């Protein structure tokens, strides 16, 4: 260990190589990481927050029209991995992402690539609801306005309504669309953010614990929505609820301390996990 | 036996009282092991005792220091022979008093004191000695009484902690009322002087008159004897200069704040911010001669070359330089506000495929607007109250004009010119300064109220 530190102090260029050397010891993923019909392909992803190695050599495919669930104990890097998929980690100065990620065969990690259209295609619902300090209506209309998705006010009205309806929020807010979005309850804000993401019809939707503040009824609505969206879209969802992962996903990936420990069909993961850590986690002996 | 020595002794007594109070509390409880029988921690009983020893004596000292001289002087003068007193004018009397005091303190220079003064000074000294002894005795007695009181109240059930809390609160109220009372005092004195002014000049003329030439005739038949006190040209001048300043400062300040907060790499930020802050640290008088000696001639030259007639002291030059002075206010306040917008809002916007400038325009800016408006209005108040630059660069001619190329004068400039030089204190000319000050104060107040209102309105909507 000391030797590595000294070497890197002398030759900073070796820093990365040292990281790699250190990481050889980490587990290799159990199960089938690739998908026959992939939408996004991630290979050997590493993420560092300063010197904290948060994602270690993760390779994973996200298939067309599938819902993939990411589970794992708190702090294991699920959100970090999700944020790689639409380059949201760019906004964190301390974060450094390495590896290859493609969307429909096109590399998105290249420095030259324009992240703005990428993010329009790969939408994201954040772990913490973050409504804009605008009215409910304007929160939803924001994306369509930017991208010029509608030609008239009537069309926009309709888009706002359908987005809110799909997120199961319409009934509660239809009489107060002009009220500030920040004045909604936590669960309502969460659905507002889901509706906001839906309004621009991204091809891939990344959902970071979208139901964490929802009651069972609202959760059921969102789960139905996810199932419905699967017909056209690709969805990656982070969840702490095993039942939810089992209900909505076709594949499940289990993360542990930055490693992708196991990935497989949801049935396999929950019924016959191959890795000891996965088994401990889903049977509740961990975390 | 100076007051500062006494002050020091009181502080020492407070420290002693703290220890005694604490010891006493521990004693009452029956030793350190049993202090949980006490309502409060022993230190609070100590504080309580210290406050009882310190506060009354300090208050006494304060009053004494304020009143001693007056009372002693009055007593000394009463001893002087009645016929001497009777022929003294007010000025001579105060001269006499200062002679007596100077002699008493042993630094009467130059003149040989008269016998009368010497007697009086001796009397004064004697009185001073008595007063000093009285003060020391009183302070000692009060300190002892305070200590005794605290000593006697120290029982296990005595709620010293709550008492100390309320005494501290009273102290805080006292100190905060100092600031409020000072403001009130300033306001009242300005108000009374203004009322005196409005007795001489009708307020309608002051507020609605368009002529400003504050001359008061020394002799009735003097030429141009009639003064005119219409303040409109001054206020339009102030508005014009401030408007030009804001026209420069708001866009430049705001845009540089956006750049610094959102776009600038860390390396740029580390040197650009201090440079902007240096701009804020330049004394206004330096800005003033920069305006008068550099910008104004440059403007005139520029005007000449395109066929415009720009006065050598123009509203434009003063306004531009004032704008430069205000840029750092606007930019640093706005930058703080923009930085305070949570990153999660930016993320939310980026995740919808918005560009950085769209995010700034549609999310960050509206969210930061209340703070920005507040900052801008603060800058406006500053512009309106700014004096030095306009004194040097805008001129003294009270022109009623909206033309920035002409010379204008402002409220603050006129206040300065009215009060500098030898003035009769009750002429309308001098009193006009107070009326101007009052009006300026009211205008700034209204501006601040509007600013608060806007800020609150947006806050209700968004938070
Ligand atoms: N902005 C950041 N700056 C520095 N370190 C971070 C940042 N975000 C996450 N980390 C670190 O990266 C690791 C993974 O965090 P991440 O948020 O991805 O976990 P998670 O699996 O989403 O956890 P949770 O289930 O609690 O949301 C943690 O150790 C965390 O401390
Ligand atoms: Mg997370």
Explain what this protein looks like in three dimensions.
The complex is a heterodimer of chains A (287) and B (463). Chain A has helices at 2-10, 15-23, 78-84, 115-121, 136-147, 153-166, 170-173, 186-198, 216-229, 242-248, 266-271, 276-282; strands spanning 38-49, 52-63, 67-71, 95-103, 106-107, 122-125, 204-208, 234-238, 251-256, 259-265. Chain A is α/β, with parallel strands linked by helices. Chain A has one domain (5-282): P-loop containing nucleotide triphosphate hydrolases (Rossmann fold, 3-Layer(aba) Sandwich), CATH 3.40.50. In chain A, the strands form two sheets. Chain A has a six-stranded mixed β-sheet, sandwiched between helices. Chain A has a four-stranded antiparallel β-sheet with strand order 2-1-4-5, with helices on one face. In chain A, strand 9 (251-256) and strand 10 (259-265) form a beta hairpin. The longest helix of chain A has 14 residues, at 153-166. Chain A is globular, with a radius of gyration of 20 Å. Chain A starts with a helix and ends in a 5-residue tail after the last helix. Chain B is an all-alpha fold and 463 residues long. Chain B folds into two domains: 3-158, no CATH class; 212-462, MetI-like fold. Chain B is built from 16 helices and two strands. Chain B has helices at residues 3-29, 42-79, 82-86, 90-104, 115-153, 160-200, 203-208, 232-263, 266-281, 284-305, 315-340, 343-350, 356-385, 388-393, 411-419, 428-462, and strands at 212-213, 228-229. In chain B, strands 1-2 form a two-stranded antiparallel sheet. In chain B, helix 4 packs across helix 5 and helix 11 crosses helix 13. The longest helix of chain B has 41 residues, at 160-200. Chain B starts with a helix and ends with a helix. The mean pLDDT of chain B is 85. At the A-B interface, helix 4, helix 5 and helix 8 of A face helix 12 and helix 13 of B. The complex binds adenosine-5'-triphosphate and magnesium ion. Residues 78-79, 127, 208 of chain A line the site of magnesium ion (MG). Chain B: Keywords: Cell inner membrane, Cell membrane, Membrane, Phosphate transport, Transmembrane, Transmembrane helix, Transport. Chain B: It holds the Pfam family DUF3708.
């Amino acid at each position: 260990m000391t030797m590595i530190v000294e070497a890197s102090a002398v030759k900073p260029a070796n820093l990365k190589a040292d990281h790699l050397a250190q990481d050889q010891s980490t587990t290799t993923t159990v199960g089938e990481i690739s998908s026959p019909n992939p939408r996004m392909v991630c290979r050997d992803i590493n993420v560092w927050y300063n010197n904290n190695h948060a994602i270690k050599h993760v390779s994973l495919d996200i298939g067309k029209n599938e819902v993939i669930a990411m589970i794992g104990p708190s702090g294991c890097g699920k959100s970090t991995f999700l944020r790689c998929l639409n380059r949201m980690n760019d906004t964190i100065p301390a974060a450094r992402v390495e590896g290859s990620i493609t969307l429909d065969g096109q590399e998105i990690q290249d420095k030259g690539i324009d992240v703005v259209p990428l993010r329009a295609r790969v939408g994201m619902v954040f772990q913490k609801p973050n409504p804009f300090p605008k009215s409910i209506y304007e929160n939803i209309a924001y994306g369509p306005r930017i991208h010029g998705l509608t030609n008239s006010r009537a069309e926009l009205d309709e888009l706002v309504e359908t987005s809110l309806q799909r997120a199961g929020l319409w009934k509660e807010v239809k009489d107060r669309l002009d009220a500030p979005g920040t004045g909604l309850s936590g669960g309502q804000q969460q659905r507002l953010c889901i509706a906001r993401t839906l309004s621009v019809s991204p091809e891939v939707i990344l959902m970071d614990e979208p139901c964490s503040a929802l009651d069972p009824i609202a959760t059921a609505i969102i789960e139905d929505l996810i199932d419905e969206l699967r017909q056209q879209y690709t969805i990656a969802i982070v969840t702490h609820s095993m039942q939810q992962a089992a209900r909505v996903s076709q594949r499940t990936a289990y993360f542990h301390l930055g490693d992708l420990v196991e990935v497989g069909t949801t049935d396999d993961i929950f019924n016959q996990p191959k890795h000891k850590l996965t088994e401990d986690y889903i049977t509740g002996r961990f975390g | 036996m100076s007051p500062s020595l006494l002050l020091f002794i009181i502080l020492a007594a407070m420290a002693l009282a703290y220890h005694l109070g604490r010891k006493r509390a521990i004693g009452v409880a029956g030793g350190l092991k049993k202090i949980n029988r006490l309502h409060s921690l022993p230190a609070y009983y100590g504080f309580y005792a210290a406050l009882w020893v310190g506060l009354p004596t300090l208050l006494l000292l304060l009053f004494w220091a304020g009143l001693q001289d007056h009372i002693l002087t009055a007593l000394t003068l009463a001893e002087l022979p009645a016929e001497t007193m009777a022929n003294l004018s007010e000025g001579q009397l105060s001269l006499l008093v200062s002679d007596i005091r100077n002699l008493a303190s042993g630094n009467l220079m130059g003149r040989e004191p008269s016998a009368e003064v010497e007697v009086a000074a001796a009397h004064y000294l004697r009185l001073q000695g008595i007063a000093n002894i009285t003060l020391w005795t009183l302070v000692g007695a009060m300190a002892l009484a305070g200590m005794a009181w605290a000593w006697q109240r120290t029982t296990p059930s005595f709620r010293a902690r709550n008492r100390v809390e309320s005494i501290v609160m009273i102290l805080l109220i006292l100190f905060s009322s100092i600031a409020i009372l000072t403001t009130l005092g300033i306001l009242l004195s300005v108000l009374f002087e203004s009322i005196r002014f409005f007795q001489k000049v009708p307020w309608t003329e002051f507020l609605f008159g368009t002529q400003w030439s504050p001359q008061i005739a020394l002799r009735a038949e003097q030429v141009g004897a009639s003064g005119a006190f219409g303040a409109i040209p001054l206020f339009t001048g102030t508005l014009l200069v401030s408007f030009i300043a804001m026209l420069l400062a708001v866009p430049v300040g705001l845009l540089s704040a956006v750049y610094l907060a959102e776009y600038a790499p860390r390396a740029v930020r580390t040197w650009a911010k201090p440079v902007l802050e240096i701009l804020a640290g330049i004394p206004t008088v330096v800005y003033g001669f920069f305006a008068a000696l550099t910008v104004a001639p440059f403007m005139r030259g520029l005007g000449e070359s395109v066929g415009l007639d720009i006065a050598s002291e123009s509203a434009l030059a003063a306004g531009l330089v004032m704008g430069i002075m205000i840029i750092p206010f606007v930019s640093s306040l706005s930058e703080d506000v923009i930085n305070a917008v949570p990153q999660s809002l930016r993320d939310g916007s980026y995740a919808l495929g918005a560009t950085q400038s769209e995010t700034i325009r549609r999310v960050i800016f509206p969210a930061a607007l209340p703070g920005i408006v507040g900052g801008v209005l603060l800058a406006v108040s500053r512009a309106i109250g700014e004096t030095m630059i306009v004194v040097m660069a805008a001129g003294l001619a009270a022109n009623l004009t909206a033309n920035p190329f002409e010379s204008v004068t402002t409220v603050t400039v006129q206040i300065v010119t009215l009060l500098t030089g030898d003035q009769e204190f009750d002429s309308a000319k001098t009193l006009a300064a107070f009326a101007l000050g009052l009006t300026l104060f009211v205008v700034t107040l209204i501006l601040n109220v509007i600013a608060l209102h806007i800020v609150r309105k947006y806050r209700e909507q968004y938070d």
